[in-house]
């Protein structure tokens, strides 16, 4: 019997590498499965070796062969099949995704993210979810757990004034710096001269600011902040005084920027040559990069970051300066063509979203899903605990003691207070007959009561009469076009109407004469509404709706509220036509369709009066 062969890592890695290349070529995982089953060793050793072989093949594809994105995705698909077959670790596809995103340019990363979105169902499966959720979160959101900065991103520029060429004449700079062939740049393409002279001091201060953008913590140091404040004020003053516009910037370049879409070239580092300074100040994209750096820096300085030191706190002067400077930066962004307003609004929206994201992380990433409260069974009312003896009192009456004699007396008037509140004796509102009996008697001319002594002239009586009429009389809500000079005149008119309806033993016969005299004035629309079936009970005709719509015009929405039309119905009417008269007619038709037989002229007159269109109802009365 031969001894078991030992696991050889180098040999296994080579075989797995060859099998991986074969699997990518044929777009199938079978060569890997076969190699895995024939190699000696335990599964843990073979899985770790295959994981490394897969990453090695990916590295070779990226560095040496310069293959397409589709080949990278094929390798990741092979790794997913390997996890399903149980021959490699569940984290391997995510490690490969991370390697690809780290090495590809931005324009090709879009295809990788499309691949991630298309395979959401795979990532949610039990096999991959626990192993890969943190990897995906870090890849998609740039998760920086410790809030660290890339301190290696140092901007290199000329720090020796002796070597500077900015003090030379413009012509010399042009000859020594950059030769331009005749006809290469016309007058329209040439940048406009800067209104502020560019010297070495401005150059040095401008590029020194990049060190603060690289490491914002410096701003919390008193002396570093003073330097940052001074350099920023001078830089922003240059941007403010040297404004760009569509005529000043190159028309050709602006057109290219608008039409190129996503073909912009992205540079990870700034070009800091002194000869490019005036061109950079004339470039809108460059200016937007610098201004956006300011906004990101300010958001970090003001925000609450979980891992920020307790000493990193702004004082009131710093906070005020940041607030004022933020407004200035947004103003400069809006003034920078092309589409400055749109770009500034988009930046503000993105930064607000980022601030909400930071707040969510600082709170420990709580779940967005609200749990449904468990259905609770109705709690049975518990038996009340017996009150102590000193509260209930002593003796056969066992009165409840409320603290003083008067409260005790009031509380113990009835053993059941709720029933006492429902008692008939609690009904304090008088009937119409009882309340208006004296007023009706005084309205009788035979009693010869002078006007000044009538109860309707008493303001206190008038106020109580209005409250009673609103509760118990239908006349209070019926429309009328009569104009009353005072409350007393209105109450006298109401007394005459009530006298006709009250029992016959009350003196109402003599009062009828006064009502007839009042009707002769032609102001009693109420009588018309009671006697004229054309106004009270008949439906609104089409000609009447046309007449009302013409008078309503653009004020039809006011009537819509009193016809109880919904906001949705109003929006439908507005969208169907722009003619206000037609919109008013459509409102009345919609109301008539909804109410059916109840859409009478009486209902419409009531709505018109309550909406303040009494002039329209007067015209209807005359008609």
Automatic annotation (TrEMBL):
Residues 541-623 form the Death domain. CDD domains: Death_NMPP84 (cd08318). One of its GO terms (biological process) is signal transduction. Residues 531-540 have a biased composition (Polar residues). Residues 386-396 have a biased composition (Basic and acidic residues). One of its GO terms (cellular component) is THO complex part of transcription export complex. Residues 371-396, 507-540 are annotated as: Disordered. InterPro entries: DEATH-like_dom_sf (IPR011029), Death_dom (IPR000488), THO_THOC1 (IPR021861). This is THO complex 1. It comes from Cyprinus carpio carpio.
């Amino acid at each position: 019997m031969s001894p078991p062969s030992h696991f050889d890592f180098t040999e296994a890695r080579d075989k797995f590498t060859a099998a991986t290349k074969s699997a990518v070529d044929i777009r199938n995982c079978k060569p890997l499965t076969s190699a895995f089953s024939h190699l000696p060793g335990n599964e843990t050793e073979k899985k770790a070796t295959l994981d490394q072989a897969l990453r090695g093949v990916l590295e070779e594809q990226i560095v040496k062969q310069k293959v397409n994105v589709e080949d990278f995705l094929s390798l990741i698909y092979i790794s997913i099949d390997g996890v399903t077959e149980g021959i490699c670790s569940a984290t391997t596809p995510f490690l490969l995704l991370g390697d690809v995103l780290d090495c590809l340019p931005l324009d090709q990363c879009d295809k990788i993210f499309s691949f991630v979105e298309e395979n959401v169902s795979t990532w949610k499966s039990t096999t991959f979810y626990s192993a890969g959720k943190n990897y995906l979160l870090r890849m998609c959101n740039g998760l920086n757990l410790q809030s660290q900065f890339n301190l290696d991103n140092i901007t290199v520029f000329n720090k020796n004034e002796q070597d500077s060429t900015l003090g030379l004449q413009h012509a010399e700079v042009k000859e020594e710096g950059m030769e331009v062939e005749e006809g290469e740049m016309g007058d329209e393409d040439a940048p406009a001269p800067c209104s502020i002279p560019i010297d070495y001091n401005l150059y040095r201060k401008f590029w020194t600011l990049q060190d603060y953008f690289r490491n914002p913590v410096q701003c919390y140091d008193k002396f570093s902040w003073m330097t940052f404040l001074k350099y920023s004020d001078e830089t922003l003053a240059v941007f403010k005084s040297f404004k760009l516009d569509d005529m000043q910037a190159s028309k050709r370049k602006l057109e290219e920027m608008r039409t190129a879409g996503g073909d912009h070239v992205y540079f990870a580092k700034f070009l800091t040559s002194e000869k490019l300074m005036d061109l950079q100040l004339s470039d809108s994209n460059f200016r937007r990069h610098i201004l956006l750096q300011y906004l990101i820096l300010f958001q970090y300085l003001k925000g609450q970051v979980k891992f920020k030191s307790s000493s990193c706190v702004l004082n009131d002067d710093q906070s005020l300066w940041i607030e004022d400077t933020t407004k200035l930066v947004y103003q400069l962004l809006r003034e920078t063509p092309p589409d400055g307003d749109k770009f500034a609004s988009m930046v503000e929206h993105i930064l607000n979203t980022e601030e909400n994201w930071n707040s969510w992380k600082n709170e420990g990433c709580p779940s967005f899903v609200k749990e449904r409260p468990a259905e609770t069974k109705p709690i049975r009312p518990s038996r009340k605990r017996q009150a102590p003896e000193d509260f209930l009192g002593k003796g056969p009456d066992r009165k409840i003691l409320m603290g003083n004699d008067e409260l005790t007396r009031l509380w113990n008037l009835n053993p059941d207070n709720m029933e006492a509140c429902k008692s008939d004796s609690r009904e304090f509102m008088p009937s119409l007959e009882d309340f208006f009996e004296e007023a009706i008697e005084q309205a009788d001319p035979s009693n010869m009561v002078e006007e000044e002594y009538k109860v309707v002239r008493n303001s206190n009586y008038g106020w109580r009469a209005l409250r009673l009429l609103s509760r118990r009389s239908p006349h209070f809500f019926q429309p009328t076009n009569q104009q009353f000079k005072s409350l007393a005149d209105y109450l006298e008119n109401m007394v005459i109407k009530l006298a006709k309806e009250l029992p016959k033993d009350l003196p109402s016969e003599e009062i009828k004469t006064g009502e007839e005299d009042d009707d002769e004035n032609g102001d009693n629309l109420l009588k018309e509404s009671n006697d004229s079936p054309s106004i009270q009970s008949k439906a609104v005709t089409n000609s009447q709706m046309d007449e009302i719509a013409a008078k309503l015009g653009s004020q039809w929405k006011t009537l819509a509220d009193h016809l109880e039309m919904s906001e949705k119905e109003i929006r439908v009417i507005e969208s169907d036509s722009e003619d206000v008269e037609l919109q008013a007619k459509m409102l009345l038709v919609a109301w008539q369709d909804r109410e059916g037989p109840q859409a009478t002229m009486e209902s419409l007159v009531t709505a018109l009066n309550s909406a303040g269109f009494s002039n329209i109802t007067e015209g209807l009365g005359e008609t």
